[in-house]
Amino acid sequence: MEKPTVAVDILGKSFNINCPKGHEAELKEAAEYLNNQMRELRASGKVIGLEKIAIIAALNLSHDLLASRRYARNNEQQLRELTSQLDSALGQHSKVG
């Protein structure tokens, strides 16, 4: 099965990227987000050079992804604990009644 090619623009350069069918909009959204991150880094004047901008942007995005995963795992754990407490409380309540 052939994958569609999607044209994306990153810092004024166009790239044709193969993409699984049905995921074109997600790829465009990801490319736009990356482009915005890289533009902000370039505009800050603190990072010089396209390669360094790309690496710093990738590190920032990786950091955000990992932080989100940790946050989700913590929330899942808290939800399991609350569910367990609720089940326990409901079990005790039904025994009393």
TrEMBL record:
Gene3D superfamilies, from UniProt?
Answer: 1.20.5.50, Cell division protein ZapA protomer, N-terminal domain
Keywords attached to this Swiss-Prot or TrEMBL record, sorted alphabetically, are: Cell cycle, Cell division, Coiled coil, Cytoplasm, Septation
Naturally occurring in which organism (per UniProt): Rhodanobacter aciditrophus
Tell me the GO BP annotations in alphabetical order: cell division
Localization recorded for this chain is: Cytoplasm
Quote the subunit structure annotation. Answer: Homodimer. Interacts with FtsZ.
Q: What is its main location?
A: cytoplasm
Question: Which family does the similarity line name?
Answer: Belongs to the ZapA family. Type 1 subfamily.
SUPFAM superfamilies assigned to the protein according to its UniProt record, in alphabetical order? Cell division protein ZapA-like (SSF102829)
- Role noted for this protein: Activator of cell division through the inhibition of FtsZ GTPase activity, therefore promoting FtsZ assembly into bundles of protofilaments necessary for the formation of the division Z ring. It is recruited early at mid-cell but it is not essential for cell division.
For this protein's source organism, the top of the classification is: Bacteria, Pseudomonadati, Pseudomonadota, Gammaproteobacteria, Lysobacterales
Q: What is this protein called?
A: Cell division protein ZapA
